[in-house]
From TrEMBL:
<dbReference type="InterPro" id="IPR023214">
    <property type="entry name" value="HAD_sf"/>
</dbReference>
<dbReference type="InterPro" id="IPR004446">
    <property type="entry name" value="Heptose_bisP_phosphatase"/>
</dbReference>
<feature type="region of interest" description="Disordered">
    <location>
        <begin position="1"/>
        <end position="25"/>
    </location>
</feature>
<dbReference type="InterPro" id="IPR006549">
    <property type="entry name" value="HAD-SF_hydro_IIIA"/>
</dbReference>
<dbReference type="InterPro" id="IPR036412">
    <property type="entry name" value="HAD-like_sf"/>
</dbReference>
<dbReference type="Pfam" id="PF00702">
    <property type="entry name" value="Hydrolase"/>
</dbReference>
<protein>
    <recommendedName>
        <fullName>D,D-heptose 1,7-bisphosphate phosphatase</fullName>
    </recommendedName>
</protein>
Length: 220
């Protein structure tokens, strides 16, 4: 599979998430593919989208991994992605990679891992990546909404017709701040408090999350 991403112009981030003085952090990195004429589910206004957290939701979370040989899909993840793709849902991936800011990961290594993920899962319509560390106070790290907004803009879908499937409470907050729906799929490191705070906005696994998205009525 050839991987030919198209890099978009930097997207603006919300001022209130950018902190006070000092240099403004750069925007998230966004890759978007043309839908290739594929009909999006949900009608003529850009359709319906699902955005997945990359680490701990789609693939096992291995800190600072730049090795495509260590990309392991989470149980049920490939099936869940395949089912949504079949339904015509636009698919995006969100990922925070602070290892780039720390100098232990390069953009090239992240792209190689991304390529491997698409070999395993098939192509995603958009990727939105935060390359910043916490100290940069960027607008894209959850709970800020920047990554979610960057992905919805790239996909030209309305946040209200977008569901973010993540493994942390911060991801749910980011989705809500962006005006999108959030679903928590607990991972090994999700805290009990995060799970209870998610209320009904959670599923036991990715298969359950897909059923909730479909049952939500936005996919027909
Ligand atoms: Zn960022």
């Amino acid at each position: 599979m050839e991987f030919t991403p198209e890099y978009l112009e930097p997207l603006p981030t919300a001022d209130r998430w950018s902190g006070g003085g000092g240099p403004r952090p750069s925007a998230p990195w966004v890759v978007v593919r043309d839908a290739g004429g594929r009909r999006a589910a949900g009608g003529g206004d850009g359709g319906v989208a699902v955005l997945f957290d990359r680490d701990a939701v789609l693939i096992e979370d291995i800190a600072y991994n730049g090795d495509p040989g260590r990309v392991y899909p989470r149980p049920g993840a490939r099936r869940a992605v395949g089912e949504l793709r079949e339904l015509g849902v636009r698919l995006g991936v969100l990922t925070e990679q602070p290892g780039i800011a720390r100098g232990v990961l390069t953009r090239r290594r992240v792209e190689i891992v991304q390529h491997r993920i698409e070999e395993l899962f098939g192509p995603f319509d958009a990727w939105a990546l935060c390359p910043h560390g916490p100290a940069e106070r960027c607008g894209c790290r959850a709970p800020a909404p920047g990554l979610v907004l960057a992905a919805t803009r790239a996909l030209r879908v309305r946040p209200a017709r977008t569901t973010v499937i993540g493994g942390t409470a911060a991801g749910l907050v980011a989705a809500a701040e962006a005006g999108a729906h959030g679903l928590l799929v607990p991972t090994a490191v999700t805290r009990p408090g995060e799970i209870s705070a998610a209320g009904h906005r959670r599923a036991a696994d990715l298969g359950g999350a897909v059923r909730l998205v479909v049952a939500g009525g936005s996919v027909r």
